Prior knowledge:
Elements: H1 2-25, E1 35-44, E2 47-50, E3 54-65, E4 69-77, E5 86-90, E6 94-103, E7 108-120, E8 124-125, E9 129-135
Parallel strand pairs: 2-9
Antiparallel strand pairs: 1-3, 3-6, 4-5, 4-7, 7-8, 7-9
Amino acid sequence: MKAVRLCLVTMMMLSLTWGAVFAQGSHPKKVLTGNVKKVVTVVNPKVWNGPAPAHLTFTGTIFVNNPPVDVEYTWVRSDGARGPVLKARITSAGEGFTDTWDVGVAKKKMKVWERLEVLSPRKASSNPAVASVNCK
Length: 136
């Protein structure tokens, strides 16, 4: 009976040892544990007085904690348009992304906006960055 126990204990020890050796040999993907803290968007220029169309540049910044963080995001416009879903790895406390919009027709005034919407790892949206467009 002692021999059987000794054999079982030896097999268990070998199993644990070899399991640890094999586990060290495999390289699992690093689990990203950071998250999105906030999202901010600005527009340049804020006011357009000139020929049509206005050329607007929107810059959105995604701030994260504990980088790197993989994000999926899209741009949303005041006219209801949504951009494609884009992916990025943010490797610092914050990273900026841009979108341009040529908008407006001659002799028309309008207010337009865009915002940056993060879809993952958690949903978050920026403020809408508003521009006044006055095309001559």
